[in-house]
Amino acid sequence: MFGPLTASLLAGSTATTKKARPLPAVGEFVRFTDPATENPVVRLTNPSTNSLLPAAPNKFVSLRDRFLIFSSDRTGSLTPFRLDLRTGMLEPLGQTAQLDPRSLCLDPSSHLIYLIDGKVLKEISLSNRKMRLLGEGISAFSGPSQDGSFVVVRNGSLERLERAGVSLASEVDPWCLIRPDGSGCLFRRSVSEVEREFWYVSLDSTRGAKPVLAVQGRITELFWSPDGRSVLLLRELPNGTLTTSEVVEINPETGETQQVSKTSQFASFAPNGDASVFVGASRSRAQPTVLLLVRSLGREITLCEHRASKPTEVLPTFSPDSRRVYYQTDSQGKSALFSVNVELLVEPTAPATS
Asked: Model-level pTM greater than 0.70?
């Protein structure tokens, strides 16, 4: 839900008025005023080296312990890092040779992280930094779900992690997204450079495992809805030289589709904790901004500029409680991480886990 300032913000000013807390004395945090909206923005990492967020559907922020996991090449190659959001302290989490930066994911308890390093799925304990190998030949994974299940793409085949060699689907792109309760999984097949098919397969052994085509088209982002019953996605709508987009909700088993809202020119997006608000990065060259989209009103509010060279790589994402938005941009040098407080704009939500 949107907070009490929604009406006034939609009518005019977008600047927040809450007094900013002092920044920690250590770390790389820098606060500045956004030139487009005058909203306070905090740069979390130094743009002299690349810092990259995980994929937006992955859990990468711990509310209980106030930290964020990300990847950085400040050690010479991409390495997983832990950023303490209270002190600004940065800690490397382990040595990796060929880290997939989008793969980083916290477990529900925020005690473990999972990642893909050179087609090897690895688990790292945050308490003692011990690393464990979970599987080889893996180009993508999703999990753990609420029942602890993992689904992986291994050598082009969709499989359960614990059932190596038992294929759920073949000719699969390196992407999958397990249902929150572990009962099913989405996977992708590419038709062309821009056209994709997204399929759904049940993981319930009593129902069989015949995949069904859920949706196809120029689709860039997918998320399970908070209740796990439907899928929220961003679909591009080419119109001559201009590309707009829409947020769509589908039933993955039946393919039933409903438009949630048109967007201006979102290149990427993510829902908040109850899917009442979406955050998006505009591909507009004239107004390269991060925006909030109110689902019930179909209206957008500008948060700040991103000015990224590739708007699809901004990856704006809500914190689990919907109080903050995190994003990345190379507008000040190399890719750095940024944070905007939105608790005066968006009603906080209760995360499923901390």
From this structure: yes
